[in-house]
Structure formats: structure tokens, C-alpha cells
Amino acid sequence: MKKIKLGSTDVEVSRLIYGTEPFNFKKGPDGNRTQGDKTPEEGGQILKGALELGVNTWDTSDDYGTHPHVAEALKLVERKEVVIADKSNALSEEDGWKALDYNRKSLGTDYVDIMFMHIVPPEPIDRKDSRGNPYHSGTLEERKGTLKAWLEAKDSGIIRATAMSTHSTKVLKQVLDFPDIDVICTTLNMMGAVIDDGTLNERLDAIRALKDDGRGVYVIKLLNAGRLRDRGDEAIEWCLQWKDFVDAWNIGMYDVPQVKHNIELFKKHL
To answer: Under a CB-based contact definition with an 8 Å cutoff, are residues 1 and 53 in contact?
Structure first.
């Protein structure tokens, strides 16, 4: 599995990133949503198997319910061999430190490689997280306190890279004014789904601009949260064509055979 450094960081990720959501959430075409039933022990063995195949980067969040799966996997491997990408809806500086304390404890690790401000919107909005808990989703301006905490954490080795995820093209453009954000994660798929604003071409232009600015970039929702599973190869291959300005692709995977299949697709196109 080929690896790449994200932007100006020293974080080297596999170009295929293991999205852990399917361990705990039902995925698939509408009306045929399955998966979501892996125990932490099963998930741990699957992630270990993925690492043995070269997929060294595992994507999780404090609201996915997959911290236990990642924690089990970390008991089975050398910590330095793995890149953990974690996320939080933290809003203030205090929240940022609390999130780091909670996430590291629940993952069973002293540090997080990439720490994301999760789903940053262009305008503030009240939402529910993946577990159904209500929260205030703040803009980049509102989350400056969180970023401040994480920059201090980066200086002390608690995290290796600051990051932000968003579904908004407007926010992707705003990140250019926040040079302290090392890595950006955003949605991209052939249907143009899960894009809050702007056209698909505008999304591609915004991603390209971030890459040109020296940021690390990886994309999510290639299969539109599993809805394109029946056209999975086509959907993945469509996304891989943007390899010149996308560093890595996060795909939600359920088991080791899916990992092997996707690695073969990547080998054909990268």
C-alpha cells in the first residue's frame, strides 16, 4: 500500500484510509442498510489485519462509537506503526483540552496523530451528532479556541497535526486564511452528494487550491455513506482520478476482504 506525507507534516499515511464507521453504523443503499454489528474485539482484529496489508491509517471520531474498536486494535500492534485520525465537535479552548483528554483515554493512547475539528459549517448551526446528542456546530471563527488548544497540544507532542473536516466548499476556501490547520478532510463522490454548497467543480477547485497551499488533503463519502455500495468500484475509481491533488481516500470498510479488494483497485490507478 503506497504511503504519502500529508502536506508539510511528518505524518505519513496509507493512501487508502480505513474508515471505521461501518463497525458501528449500518451502511448501504437506502432500504438495504447493513453492517454496524462488529464487536470491539472483532474490529480490533480487522484493523490489525488491515495494518498487515499496509493500511496504516484508521479514521474514527468520539461520536462514531468506534473508539473501543480502535483501542482493541492498538493493543495488538506497535503504536508507532499506526496513524490515528480522530475528530471532535469541541468549540472552546477548554472543550478542546477536554476532548483531547477524553479521546486519548478512550483510545488508550498517549497521543493522537491527526486531530480534527469535526464537520465545520459555513454558518453556526445546532445539530445532532452520530449518537443523536444535540450540540452547537461552530464555524472556524467560533472554534479558534479549540484550534489554540490543539496547537499547544501539538507543541507538546499530544497531537502531531491539526485538522478540520467539512462538507462545505465555502469553508474549504476559508481554511486558506487559517495556516495553522495542517490537514483537511472533505466529502467527494461521483454523485456530488453530501456537499453543502457549491458545485462539484467548485469542490474540486477548492481541494486543489488547498493542496497547492501545502495542506494535506483526504476525502470521505466516496460511496455516499454506503449508498453507492452496489457501484462501489465505479465510485472509488471515479475518486481516484483526482490523485494529483488528493493525498488519500477514506473508505468505510467492514472486513479484511473489503480491504484487500480496495487495495487491488488502488494498485490499478495509483
So the answer is: yes
First to last CA, the chain: 10
Distance of CA 129 to the CA centre of its chain: 15
**How many domains are contained in the chain?**
1
Is the distance from CB of 215 to CB of 183 less than 8 angstroms?
yes
26 touches 252 (CB < 8 A): no
How many other CB atoms are found less than 10 A from the CB of residue 144?
16
Contact 91, 147 (CB under 8 A): no
**Residue 130 pLDDT greater than 90, yes or no:** no
| Cα–Cα distance measured from residue 91 to residue 158, given in angstroms and rounded to the nearest whole number | 19
pTM over 0.90? The answer is yes
Region 33-52: what's the mean pLDDT?
97
Report yes or no: 88 and 60 within 8 Å, Cβ to Cβ. Answer: no
Q: Which residues contact 141 (CB under 8 A, 6 or more apart)?
A: none
Please give the helix or strand (H or E) that residue 11 lies within, else none: none
Percent of the chain exceeding pLDDT 90 equals 96
Domain extent for 14 = 3-269
pLDDT (0 to 100) of residue 131:
82
Q: Indicate which CATH number applies to the domain containing 152.
A: 3.20.20.100
pLDDT, tens digit (0-9, with 9 covering 90-100), for 242-259: 999 999 999 999 999 999
E strands, the chain, in order:
3-5, 12-14, 16-19, 57-59, 83-88, 112-117, 125-128, 134-137, 159-166, 183-187, 216-220, 248-252
* Per-residue pLDDT at 132 exceeds 90: no
User: Residue 211 and residue 203: Cα distance in Å, rounded?
Assistant: 13
C-alpha pair distances (Å), 210 with each of 18, 116, 143, 216: 23, 16, 20, 8
